[in-house]
Specification:
alpha/beta, Rossmann fold, 41% helix
Amino acid sequence: MIVVMRRDAKEQDIQHMIKQGIADPKHICIYGGSYGGYATMMGLAKTPDLYKCGINYVGVTDLPLMLGATWSDFAYSDFIRYSAKRLMGDPDKDEAQLKATSPDLLANRIKAPVLMAYGGADVRVPIEHGTRMKAALEREGQHPIWIVADGEGHGFRAMENQVMFYGAMEKFLDQNIGH
């Protein structure tokens, strides 16, 4: 049985489903794109024994980089200028908190296998998020599956890249949590 949960599901929701016999703790993987990719990596770091694998699709992994990048399409947006500091933190005042909630700095806590996919031309979440996360995992002895689709932006639009990504995802899930 496959159970799909909302992206705002919490660990206690998953634990409740395990207790109810709805979910098998040996077959739980976390997946998300963009903010969901961030949530995936944070879920793997915060509750390393809960998930058997994780799939990060075009996810933010470094909050100071997101808030300070000058090449992102967010760089000079109203969101960054006015809302981000209230919602995410001020890089000048909240550096410790931003680092404490940046998955690339928590790679030492991640135990589960990881698949990461990024668009080579993504200007929303530049590929540097992925390369930093990949390097951090590799420093910890992890060997993440790494997919880059050249020419793709924030999400794969070309059918051949979608087929490639979802095929890789299917293989990854089969290897790590089976049927």
